[in-house]
Amino acid sequence: MAPTHGTHPVLVASNRGPVSYTKGESGELTAKRGGGGLVSGLSAIGPDAGALWVCSALGDGDREAVRRGVSEDGVRMLDIDADTHAAAYNGIANSALWFVHHMLYQTPLEPVFDAGFRRQWAAYETYNQAFAEALAEEAADGAAVLVQDYHLTLVPRMLRELRPDLRIGHFSHTPWAPADYFRLLPDDIAAKVLHGILGADRAAFLTRRWADAFTDCCRAVLGDDFDPDTRIGVHGLGADADFLRERSHREDVDERMAALRDQIGTAPDGSARKTIVRVDRTELSKNIVRGLLAYRELLEDRPEWRERVVHVAFAYPSRQDLAVYRDYTAEVQRVADEINSAYGTDGWTPVVLHVKDDFARSLAAYRLADVALVNPIRDGMNLVAKEVPVVSDDGCVLVLSREAGAYEELGDDSVVVNPYDVSGTAEALHEALLVPAGERAERTKRLAAAATALPPAQWFLDQLQAVRSAGAGG
User: What is the mean pLDDT of residues 212-227?
Assistant: First the structure.
């Protein structure tokens, strides 16, 4: 008798998959493999595990690949209507749910949940339903399905209705908003998001703080409808130490270190200049502008650091299809230029700003950093905070926002800041620059140990085991 269901015992669902396609001038398709914790984690179960990654086609190359039947082993890419995807991804996921969880709204003017929002929400439901149907079709009897992030909050409930036999987990890679802020969402939408995730056997988060915020929201929004049967878990994704240490010592990283050293230069007395490093996407939550303002205040109030320190700032453009992100990227450039104009000399550029994504250059900066500035407004985890100590050559002081998820694990050995307090951050940079080399090295060892406690492979396997143990029918 033919099986009534699919054949895959393990499935992962996420908006972005492990591969993307570009279409050349002559029509040929080129595949590019992605990285990150999920890619590393899924590889831990091995190629013979029968796993399937369900993701969305994100661009014209991806859609063309689906239409031609081009695919990678273990990947199913969904060709969701481009307008539907744009409304779900930009309109709801990135302009509503992301803003709520990162508490980014300028509330006198936004959000505005009007008829246009409701049309976008309908697209978000359609988008999530497409994922649920594909997962239901592909999953073997009793399979484990790990649904990822705020793009797919409705999938667990939809999938449960289609396939009650499955073991379903949902993992949130973002922070979770406190209940009062989450309730900016229309009441029915807030309830749908929560009910959607509660369709899983297990809902997991990067830190206990975000997990507790989720349950607080459930109690506040759902009241007596809150189903406590869904298990709540915490898995603090760590850095991949083996990969980072090997990759950071390749020839291309050494070349970029030499180039950065040339840009940094030496102090007038011939001594090595100190470096304050940050590596971020120009994401609104990363707080790059306030970091630059804090550096400017350091130079203004502590003139002894002029010509003795350089801020190496990598701000890689993100979500440039949204006007607010384009404006933010422009503001980062403007403030950096303003600092260089005000304080720079013929032999010293105070801010070395790079906006073109270059992983090898990022690793080179990690190795060179005397101070790493990680000051997000809010962040689910922030892997940069974990990666820098792992690859630092001579030890690095971490200036860390208390609103980053990484604070729970790294706060004791960091200089901790309130991300809104520019003056406080300037003073923290001064303090960090003064830490003696020996203490800096000891701090870095402790930070690296904490940062690698749950590497991506184990992070994924722990979730998989927990979801299988949770049982079906949550």
Answer: 90
Tell me the two tokens of residue 343: 């304080």
CB-CB neighbours of 296 under 10 Å: 21
Segment 154-178, tens digit of pLDDT: 999 999 999 999 999 999 999 999 9
Nearest-Å Rg of the Cα atoms of the chain is 23
149 closest CA partner among 198, 200, 188, 205: 205
SS3 149: coil
The pairing of beta strand 8-13 with beta strand 139-148: parallel
The whole-number average pLDDT for the span 434-448 is 96
Residue 74: pLDDT above 80?
yes
Strand segments (E) across 199-257: 202-205, 231-234
Cis peptide before 111 (omega within 30 of 0): yes
CA-CA-CA-CA torsion sign (208, 279, 419, 388)? positive
Between β-strands 19-23 and 29-33, what pairing exists: parallel, antiparallel or unpaired? Answer: antiparallel
8 A C-beta contact, residue 160 and residue 168: yes
Nearest to 378 by CA among 174, 141, 110: 174
CA distances from residue 447 to 184, 196, 239, 377, 400 in whole angstroms, order as listed: 37, 36, 11, 21, 12
- The pLDDT tens digits of the residues spanning 203-216 come to 999 999 999 999 99
CA–CA separation, 472 vs 424, rounded Å? 49
User: Torsions phi, psi of 468, nearest 5?
Assistant: -65, -35
Q: What angle do CA 211, 214, 215 make, to 5 degrees?
A: 95
Beta carbons of 108 and 135 less than 8 angstroms apart: no
Cβ-count burial 308-322 (b if 16+ within 10 Å, e if not): bbbbbbbbbbbbeee
Longest dimension (CA), the chain: 82
pLDDT over 70 for what percent of the chain? 96
> Please, what is the Cα angle at 299 between 296 and 304, to 5 degrees?
170
Residues with Cβ within 8 Å of residue 49, at least 6 apart in sequence: 9, 10
Which amino acid, 100? V
Whether the per-residue pLDDT at 41 is higher than 70: the answer is: no
Instruction: Give the pairing type, strands 351-354 and 397-401.
Output: unpaired
**Under a CB-based contact definition with an 8 Å cutoff, are residues 68 and 53 in contact?**
no
Task: State the pLDDT at residue 362.
Answer: 95
Q: Over the stretch 333-342, which tens digit does the pLDDT of each residue have? A: 999 999 999 9
4 CB neighbour count, 10 Å cutoff: 6
174 close to 40: Cβ distance less than 8 angstroms? no
